[in-house]
Structure formats: C-alpha cells, structure tokens
C-alpha cells in the first residue's frame, strides 16, 4: 500500500523553550489508514498534526502528502494549508455559530468557488446523518451534532487527508463511545487517510489501524493496537496503553527454561529472545487471586489484599506481597461479586505467558 503522508526528520523548536517540541521524527502513514498519535499532554502530538496541516512551520525536515512535497526546510518549500488538500476537525470544532448547518458545511467549497455546492453539501450531510438539520443554526445543536457538522465540513471537499485534533474530548462518556464507532465507520466508508491526535488510550485502541506512541517530542514505537497492548517494546508504552505492573528483574536460563528474578521472587516466563536486565510487566487482568493456594501452577505467591475499588463489572485491588521485610504492591482485577475483602490473606498466580519482558537497553530507543 502506498504512503499518503511521509515525515522525514521533522523537528520543531519554539523560541525560549528548553527542549524541542519535535525532535526530528520520521513516520510513514499509508493511504486509507486510520493512524493515531497517542501520548500525554505536552508530548508534541498536536504540534506534529499542525505541522502536517501547515498551521505550524517545522524547524527542520520534510513533509510529503501523496506525491506533493508540502514542506522541505532545506529546499525552502512551505505550502499553505489551503494548498495541502486536507480536512481538519479541531478540538473546539470551530464551527460558525451565526451560520446554519448547510452554510457551515458549504463554507470551504464557497471559499474555493467550486461548483455543485448544494449537491456536495447534501451528500456530506447524509454521510454524517445531518440531512434533517440543514437549516438549523449550529448554536442550537448538541455537542455530538456540532461534531458531525465539523466532520461534514472536513470531508465535503474530498480531502486527501483528514486530521482530527482530540475531536471527542468535549463529549460525555456515553456519546464519546458512540462517536468512536461513528468516526471509524465514516473513515472506512469514505476511505480517506485519517490522523487522530488523542491522549485517550481507549480511543486509540478501538479506532486505529496503527498507533504511534509519543513522548517528549519523539516517537517511541509504531504498531497495531493489539501488538502495542500485548507486546510493547518500551515500559512507557506498556504503562501508558492500559494499566501495567512494572517490575525490574534479571532474565536468565538455568537449563529449565527462562526465569526472571524480581523483588517478589523468581517468575517463570515463556521463551524470549533476550537475556539480562529487563523490565517485566503484568496486566492487572492477568493476575489470578484465590483464597487457597493453587496446586501445580507456576508463579504462585502468598499475598494479602489492600484497597479494593468497585468500578462496575469488576473491582480493582492492590495485592500486597511480602518481600524480606518490605511489601510490593501489584494492581489486579477481580470480579465485582468476589467474597474477598480488604485485609484478607490470599494467593496469586501469574501465568508465564502473561509476563512480558522488555530489555532495559532498548528503553531509550526511538524510531
């Protein structure tokens, strides 16, 4: 599949800043892909999106959309946003309150003095389900409807690329879940290459074809949602994408299979292509808690229950493990109807295949 967006050594330094907002990163985003830039606030993801859009000028590097170079620092090329054939949905939606839905959606076409405006606007409104709201002023719409207006305006000009800057952050939890599915359906229906910026891991996991995990202006790794959740290459990704218990350890093989030595004891793991100093991580849902000691199971450890938090269909709890006079706390997930209570003694077991090991030497690598 051909690349729709190519970023090569893109950097951005703001005057007076102590560190670069973007540290010379490179990415390739494929045609028709739903690609997400995921990371905490201040990691550079919105700055990168704005550089792609032409709303920020990078300090170095090259950006290509399709076959067109839209920015090249060395060649002094910097096309304006109106020459990049992009559609953009801002976090605040940025729709005109004094215009009707139809007028808002038609705005980019009229700016370009294009033909068949009514037909194209009606088609875009049908795609997002706003065909019955054409004459309503946008100030009289709900948050979800305003977002649909912004989406219709972004796609009406048939852009090569659609850029989404945290478009769901202003919606309530229920509507946000509904709009995730709607956005994904819309993107696949029209087939436009889409780049989403978000700090919400659930949004990224549920909507994306691939995700780039960002930190401090760098891309740490790029992979599918499933691979990033199950086999992250950095401890940062393991902790940022879903909850994770991180334990430093030493991975060895004494002839009976690989074992990682940690603060809570020796844990058997499945065969991995690394040895030496590692960070192993365990998802809360992979820690089994039982009142009795499980027989003939690996990685069984005595423990006691700390704080238990009810979160609906599950409970999250702290599992306290004694380690030579100190305690190590792991986060676990148990059924909401459990009979266990805070302070109860119990045993935990951790399946070897659910313990992932990340080589410490690879922690600072970026792509």
Overview of this structure, please?
The chain is of the alpha+beta class. It folds into two domains: 3-238, 3-Layer(aba) Sandwich (Rossmann fold); 245-362, RNA polymerase II/Efflux pump adaptor protein, barrel-sandwich hybrid domain (OB fold (Dihydrolipoamide Acetyltransferase, E2P)). The chain is built from eight helices and 21 strands. A hairpin with a 2-residue loop joins strand 13 (258-262) and strand 14 (265-268).
Outline the low-pLDDT stretches: none
CATH class of the largest domain: Alpha Beta
How much helix is in the residues? 10-25%
Global mean pLDDT: 89
User: What is the 3D shape?
Assistant: globular
Integer tally of domains: 2
Number of helices: 8
Number of strands: 21
CATH superfamily of the largest domain: P-loop containing nucleotide triphosphate hydrolases
Order of helices and strands: EEEHEEEEHHHEHEHEEHHEEEEEEEEEE
CATH architecture label name of the largest domain = 3-Layer(aba) Sandwich
**SS class:** alpha+beta
User: Taking Cα atoms only, what radius of gyration do you get, to the nearest Å?
Assistant: 25 Å
Major beta-sheet overview: 6 strands, mixed
Strand order of the largest sheet: 7-8-9-3-10-11
CATH topology-level name of the largest domain? Rossmann fold
- For the record, give the distance between the C-alpha atoms at the N and C termini, rounded to a whole number: 21 Å
């Amino acid at each position: 599949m051909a690349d729709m967006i190519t970023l090569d050594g893109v950097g951005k330094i703001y005057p007076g800043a102590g560190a670069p907002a973007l540290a010379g990163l490179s990415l390739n985003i494929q045609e028709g892909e739903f690609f997400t830039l995921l990371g905490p606030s201040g990691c550079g993801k919105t700055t990168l999106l704005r550089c792609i859009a032409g709303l920020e000028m990078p300090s170095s590097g090259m950006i290509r959309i399709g076959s067109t170079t839209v920015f090249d620092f060395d060649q002094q090329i910097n096309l304006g946003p109106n020459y990049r054939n992009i559609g953009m949905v801002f976090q605040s939606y940025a729709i005109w309150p004094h215009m009707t839905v139809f007028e808002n959606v038609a705005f980019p076409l009229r700016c370009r003095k294009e033909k068949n405006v009514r037909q194209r606007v009606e088609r875009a409104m049908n795609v997002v389900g706003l065909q019955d709201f054409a004459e309503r002023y946008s100030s009289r719409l709900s948050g979800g409807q305003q977002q649909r207006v912004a989406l219709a305006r972004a796609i009406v000009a048939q852009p090569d690329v659609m850029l989404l800057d945290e478009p769901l952050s202003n919606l309530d939890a229920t509507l946000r879940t509904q709009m995730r599915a709607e956005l994904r359906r819309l993107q696949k229906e029209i087939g436009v290459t889409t780049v989403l910026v978000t700090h919400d891991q659930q949004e990224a996991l549920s909507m994306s074809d691939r995700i780039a995990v960002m930190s401090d202006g760098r891309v740490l790794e790029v992979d599918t949602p499933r691979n990033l959740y199950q086999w992250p290459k950095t401890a940062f990704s393991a902790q940022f994408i879903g909850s994770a218990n991180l334990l430093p350890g030493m991975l060895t093989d004494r002839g009976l299979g690989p074992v990682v030595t940690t603060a809570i004891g020796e844990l058997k793991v499945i065969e991995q292509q690394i040895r030496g100093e590692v960070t192993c991580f365990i998802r809360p849902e992979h820690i089994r808690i039982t009142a009795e000691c499980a027989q003939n199971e690996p990685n069984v450890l005595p423990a006691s229950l700390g704080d238990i938090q009810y979160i609906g269909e599950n409970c999250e709890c702290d599992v306290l493990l004694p380690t030579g006079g100190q305690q190590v706390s792991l986060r676990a997930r148990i059924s909401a109807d459990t009979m266990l209570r805070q302070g109860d003694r119990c045993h935990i077991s951790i399946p070897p295949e659910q313990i992932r090991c990340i080589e410490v030497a690879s922690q600072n690598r970026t792509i």
